[in-house]
TrEMBL record:
PANTHER family assigned: CAMP-BINDING PROTEIN 1-RELATED, GENERAL STRESS PROTEIN 16U
Protein name per the record: TerD family protein
Family: Belongs to the CAPAB/TerDEXZ family.
Origin superkingdom: Bacteria
TerD domain residues: 29-169
InterPro entries found in the cross-reference section: Stress/Tellurium_Resist, TerD
UniProt organism field: Streptomyces sp. R35
Composition skew (Basic and acidic residues), residue ranges: 465-474
Segments of this protein annotated with the region Disordered: 440-487
Coiled-coil segments: none
């Protein structure tokens, strides 16, 4: 092992290296992201593609990749792979950098960079000991010298983050234009009855059952103060039927809690209103008897908070500061939507949910960073019906936003503290190495789009850890226009949809500029919640028409949140995977005893979509192609109802059954005909009058290039790969005579 100090250098083997930007795993310390910059002789990048990081994880040459995070032995590491023989001749240096999220490098314990050879031996290790207020750091660099590669410990800090560091090496990061200031809403005395100030109470806990209209939930005596919102006296308004609430200027701008009570049976919902006095965000939507719930809402600084409230019976709405939120310490129980505060260390959270009155109600929990409540929220739980589940939770301070239609319980179990111990200069701590994955060259960037095809400000959007995530919600039929957060690239649409009570299923259609429709989703194939791919062709916007729907919500996520498909995975419902590697096959197996829809589809960089496998209501495993284009990847879409469980496993092409004289199977399959092209007898046991067998010729990348037949009997079978698509019956392909 070679340990070097700042400014020193050491030779490294000119082969495949794995580089870790690592730190000690101490709860509450800032996160660190690793990146690599490929520089020419002038010390500059040649274009945007020469920056490799978590949102652009592979260089077009295949020489540098960002391969993810690993932890173990009290260490956290962000990993890069460098295939030095594949580094292009005009690249003279590969700089290894880190950027700090939510703090400075002075607060990062045990910051270090180390390189390992193909055998896992550490060939260079440098630990940073002089970091202070920097938010980005050049840790080291690999450089050419006299036909060899060396590593130098640099240790140069930046106060301007990854964007400033990238600019210093020649990447033009354009700042987004400042939005035009919003016109202030003029003060007015018109409107509903003014809200009455409600004094803070410290009474006994509220008893179970209906809540009196003049009762405000007390602040727990042992609650830890939560300083991430304005303080003010709670205000309340009561009504029946439909009403509009305008919050006075006594409530300063910032996040607030809106608490609502609705007495008796019936429907209750509430929306915030826009400056144009139209429905904006859905706050409550519930039919629980004696409903009571809390939600997070924002009082903007350019207008007063206004709410449209509708209830079948008497209701009370109270606007309160975040300080009234209940704290998740140990076990917390609730009934309906809630806002919780979590200020502990990293933990596992156990959730129990009753399933609601109908046994099929939804239970959703989001976590929000208390320092950035308007930013993106992370999904912790999302399921329907009775459940007992566990999920990981990062360290606080966080807000947990619970959406539920029945009794629930959350229990936080903090992880055992790990004593980091003193740093050992003579023997650096071991770092967990993630599983090696093959590196495949491809023409475009990490998303299959070349540098010249990207929007001018595309890189700036990928430099941020989070993106603006457009959220839409409502109830009932509506046409929604969704804007692509990064035109030219796809995005993930996360959805939660309930059927309208008067219909058996919902339907969502795509509308073109002439209002012609194309089927996009329906409840029989996608269930009530899940993920799908949107903007598959990089469109700037799409229009969706929602029909026969009850309450619904749509949320756009960056395509980087697609789960990597490696090895064997299991899950439920519709989701999106990203597969990177050579052409391969995937087996699909149903894990639940239902006969609902379960398909997989591949989507390429150009948006071309083709079916890969379908179980046709059977539990028997089926096999389909993972078509990978010249871009080096594809997306795999799983289409299933939320309750349908599945297992997917990838396998190399050499596992495909080869035949010359005869091959047989049942359901979807991929086979290889090794003999010359010839007429062969195709037999199929159909499972219904409209159950057909289709044979498709595949090229070497597994793209379907020609439909061979749609029927049994004598068919021309070419040499090479053939996909069998059928409804689940037994089939055979056999040479004549």
């Amino acid at each position: 092992m070679t340990i070097i100090t700042k400014g020193a250098n050491t030779p490294v083997p000119a082969g495949m290296l794995r580089v870790a930007v690592c730190r000690r795993n101490v709860p509450g310390t800032p996160a660190v992201d690793a990146s690599a910059l490929l520089l020419d002789a002038a010390g500059k990048v040649r274009g945007d593609a020469d920056l490799v990081f978590y949102n652009q994880p592979a260089h077009p040459s295949g020489a540098v990749r960002h391969v993810g995070t690993a932890e173990g032995g009290g260490q956290l590491a962000e990993w890069l792979e460098l295939d030095l023989p594949r580094v292009e001749p005009d690249v003279q240096r590969v700089v290894i950098a880190g950027s700090c999220d939510g703090g400075t490098f002075g607060a990062v314990p045990g910051l270090a960079v180390q390189a390992l050879n193909g055998d896992g031996a550490v060939v260079a290790h440098y630990e940073v000991t002089d970091a202070s207020s920097e938010t980005a750091f050049v840790l080291g660099e690999f450089y050419r010298r006299n036909g060899e590669w060396k590593f130098r410990a640099v240790g140069q800090g930046y106060a301007s983050g990854l964007a400033g560091l990238a600019t210093d090496f020649g990447i033009a990061v354009e700042e987004p234009a400042e939005p035009a200031p919003l016109n202030a809403v003029p003060a007015t005395t018109a409107g509903p009855v003014p809200l009455d100030a409600v004094p803070a109470k410290t009474a006994e806990p509220v008893p179970a059952g209906p809540v009196p209209a003049d009762t405000v939930r007390p602040v727990p005596q042992d609650a830890v103060p939560f300083p991430f919102g304005p303080g003010f006296e709670p205000v309340v308004q009561r009504g029946r039927g439909q009403g509009v609430i305008t919050v006075g200027r006594s409530v300063p701008p910032g996040p607030v809690i809106v608490e609502a009570w609705h007495e008796g049976e019936g429907y209750f919902y509430a929306y915030t209103l826009t400056k144009r006095n139209k429905d904006d965000k859905l706050v409550f939507n519930n039919t629980m008897t004696d409903f009571r719930g809390r939600a997070l809402v924002f009082q903007d600084d350019d207008r007063r908070l206004r709410l449209r409230v509708t209830g079948d019976n008497d209701w009370t709405v109270s606007v309160q500061p975040l300080s009234v939120a209940r704290h998740l310490t140990g076990t917390v129980q609730g009934l309906g939507p809630e806002v919780l505060v979590y200020t502990g260390t990293e933990a596992d959270v156990d959730a129990e949910f009753s399933g609601g009155d109908d046994g099929d109600s939804s239970f959703v929990v989001w976590s929000a960073d208390a320092h950035n409540l308007r930013g993106s929220h992370d999904l912790v739980f999302n399921d329907v019906g009775r459940l007992r589940q566990t999920a990981p939770l990062p360290g606080g301070p966080l807000l947990l936003l619970v959406e539920a239609d029945g009794p629930w319980q959350l229990t936080a179990r903090p992880l055992p503290a790990i004593d980091p111990g003193p740093a050992q200069a003579s023997e650096p701590p071991a770092v967990v190495v993630p599983e090696t994955r093959p590196v495949q060259p491809y023409a475009g960037g990490s998303d299959g789009v070349s540098k010249d095809e990207r929007p001018a400000k595309g890189l700036l959007g990928r430099l941020g850890r989070t993106k603006d995530q457009a959220e839409h919600s409502g109830r009932g039929a509506k046409t929604v226009t969704l804007a692509n957060p990064e035109p030219g690239r796809p995005a993930i649409l996360e959805y939660s949809i309930k059927d309208d009570d008067g219909y058996s299923s919902y339907r969502i259609e795509l509308l073109d500029e002439y209002d012609d429709t194309e089927k996009f989703m329906e409840s029989s194939t996608h269930g009530t919640h899940g993920r799908v791919l949107l903007f598959g062709k990089g469109e700037s916007e799409v229009r969706l028409r929602l029909e026969r729907v009850g309450s619904w919500s749509l949320r756009l996520l960056p395509v980087e949140e697609a789960t990597p498909l490696t090895g064997k995975v299991e899950g439920k419902g519709s989701t999106v995977f990203r597969y990177t590697g050579p052409p391969a096959v995937q087996s699909l197996r149903r894990l639940t005893r239902d006969d609902d829809w379960l398909d997989t589809w591949t989507v390429q960089a150009d948006g071309k979509k083709s079916i890969s496998a379908s179980t046709a209501g059977r539990r028997r495993p089926v096999v389909g192609p993972l078509r990978v284009s010249a871009d080096g990847y594809c997306y795999l879409l799983v289409t299933a109802r939320h309750s349908t469980g599945w297992q997917i496993e990838t396998a190399a092409l050499d596992t495909v059954p080869a035949f010359d004289g005869k091959v047989s199977g049942q359901g979807y399959a991929v086979v290889r005909h090794t003999g010359p092209a010839a007429e062969m007898m195709v037999r199929y046991e159909a499972r219904g009058m409209i159950d057909l067998i289709a044979l498709w010729e595949l090229d070497d990348r597994l793209e379907p290039i020609r439909r061979i037949s749609m029927a049994a009997g004598l068919q021309p079978i070419p040499q090479g790969l053939v996909q069998v698509r059928c409804g689940g019956g037994k089939w055979s392909i056999e040479a004549r005579g």
